[in-house]
Amino acid sequence: MNSIQTANIVLIFIGLVLLASGPYILYRTIFGLIQSRREDPTANLHFFSNFLNIVIAVLFFMAGGLFIINNLRGNPLG
């Protein structure tokens, strides 16, 4: 098992940012859909764009978790 190095610590912080940004993107996407529907019930919701936002949010969340797990084990990516 390798020791935790500076590269691991930096990548763990990047993982924390990704882990936090996933739910934030998801919240903003859903809140935007609800708000636009409240303002105009016939508004175009841009389903493809919002679906991509949700996919990105899920991928960021998963990537953040994997960054943290990988670097706590002492395996830097670089």
Short recap of the structure:
This protein has helices at residues 6-39, 47-72. With 78 residues, the protein is mainly alpha-helical.
Protein described:
The protein has about 80 residues and is mainly α. About 75% of the residues lie in helices and about 0% in strands. The protein has 2 helices and no strands. It has helices at about 5-40, 45-70. The chain is rod-shaped, with a radius of gyration of 17 Å. The two termini are about 15 Å apart. The mean pLDDT is about 90.
What keyword list fits this structure?
mainly alpha; 77% helix; 78 residues
**What's the tally of helices?**
2
Cα distance, first to last residue?
17 Å
Low-pLDDT parts are none
Form type: rod-shaped
> Class by helix and strand content?
mainly alpha
Largest beta-sheet details: none
User: Count of DSSP E strands?
Assistant: 0
Radius of gyration, CA atoms, in whole angstroms = 17 Å
The share of residues in extended strands comes to under 5%
Q: Roughly how much helix do the residues carry, as a percent range?
A: over 70%
Mean pLDDT: 89
H-E order:
HH
